[in-house]
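Example record used in the benchmark description.
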Amino acid sequence: MAYTAIDDPEAYFQVKAYTGTGSEQSLTFDGDTDMQPDLVWLKNRTDARAPALVDSVRTAKKVLRSDTTAAEQTSDADKDFESFDSDGFTVSTPQTWNSMNESGDSLVAWCFKESATAGFDIVSYTGDGNAGATVSHSLSAAPSFYVVKTRDSTYDWRAYHKGIGETKYFNLNQTTAAATATNAWNDTAPTSSVFSLGDGSTVNQNTDNFIAYCFAEKQGFSKIDKYNGNGNADGAFVYTGFRPAWVMIRDPGNAENTFIFDNKRDGYNVNKVLLYANTTPADTTTGANQIDLLSNGFKCRSTDNGTNRSGATFLYMAFAEAPLVNSNGVPNNAR
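Model output (structure tokens):
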């Protein structure tokens, strides 16, 4: 039996840290494997700028921001995000989105390849306003996490996570605790071919165009689950089965940010440089909410409530830099 479904995570996910020039520049990924991304999530690390998302389904000029309810915006032909390239992406002169290429600023891009093999599907659909509507996906497995955003109206980024189930949701763009509502997912768990919608406008506004980012777990490459905080500096250890390149953490029971860690901004343990999915601040290095990225998972290294509140249950999603053991039985190294 293989230890991992994917020996080469770089074929499906990479993090790119770079410096903005204020003019057109093509960014090449640092990994040994070429990857043309389908979703690029960008954040300015120097200044407080909106986290911006572009994907190949909506096309490069259509931009959403994950920190507010704002509808999709369209950049001019020679501005902002230019293209998804064979091993990276191209950005140009800033127009609206200074999270992409602001001159002299440090920036980061979290980049995903759409593939059923890697458990990631980008789905575009039109709302019909009817409870019980279903949306097809191409994962061939039930997604463990998906987040939905209308492109046309000012509604929240509504998220499903298997750790809270189909009767609840949380809003990626907010700090509010998870809520119970039938009008989100119609109290229906996703299947290997569809996910279900309630009649709520946030996920199913009649005639609105929506985008959904759907993720299914793949052994040795991705892990979407939950863990319990202990409130101790020798914090919770979370086994993933791989050395993480990227970790997103959210406390659904309390008013907290959605934290994002990666393997490029710090580059070593302890990982103490914070960014957030739901708000604009630059890299934050207060020493709070620190984690270690390990050969087989991650470990909380602070007493802070955002990632290690005593007694709280945290949701997370993580993607691999390297599997713990590849399909030939060869182990990876810790950082």
